[in-house]
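Before the break, one more example. Copy the sequence into your notebook; we will annotate it together after we see the structure.
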Amino acid sequence: MNTSPHILVVDDDHEIRDLLARFLDKHGLRVTAARDGAEMMKALENPGIDLVVLDLMMPGEDGLSLTRRLRTQGNSVPIVMLTAMGEDTDRIVGLEVGADDYLPKPFNPRELLARIKAVLRRFQGDTNDLAPVATPTGSAPRLKFNDWVLDIATRDLTAPDGVVLTLSAGEFDLLRAFVEHPRRVLSRDQLLDLARGRQAIPFDRSIDIQVSRLRRKLDDDPKEPQLIKTVRGGGYLFTPEVVKL
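Here is what the structure looks like once it is written out:
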């Protein structure tokens, strides 16, 4: 039985689909290709899809709408979005609606492969890329803060009222970085390295977008946040006490 990761490539350009399918297959990944949102949603009926490479600009339902629909449905499959070169607004919106990473076109297939592997490692819980700045809480399987509980093994976040929230891979990785480094100011570069497993891209504000999403999930007032505070010129501070369960 082939246990290599199964990648769904969604792009209306058949040449790009074929190129990526051949390249990823050559590097040991299983690939399914889809030309539009309808084929994508049908393919995702297969629970074996491990990651989606999704083009933003497609006729009909575009990548942003498809990502938003998946996240609204509670589907947390990792998504690497392909965006037009220089379209920063689309990139930011893509991260806001739930994409886990992005890559501007034109791109080197090898860079896409590296991004896919990095996202898969994060989503599957491989912590090799998460060298902590400090580990006051270690890698306890369940960590509690302000009556919220984060289960590292299952990647579940349970609210104080008992409701289990769905986190994207990026949201989980960022929250894990915070709860494993509580009450310590972390710069954007440190958070990028901890939560995404790669060096910060100059002027990359994706951490700010992820923080905004986390604040909404945690009901942390963005105007006066109490859990994740912004430190001017420094980064972010996760204020709650964190305890092992």
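Helices lie at 14-26, 37-43, 63-72, 88-97, 109-123, 169-179, 188-196, 206-217. Residues 6-123 form a domain with the Rossmann fold fold (CATH 3.40.50.2300). Try to locate both features in your own notes.
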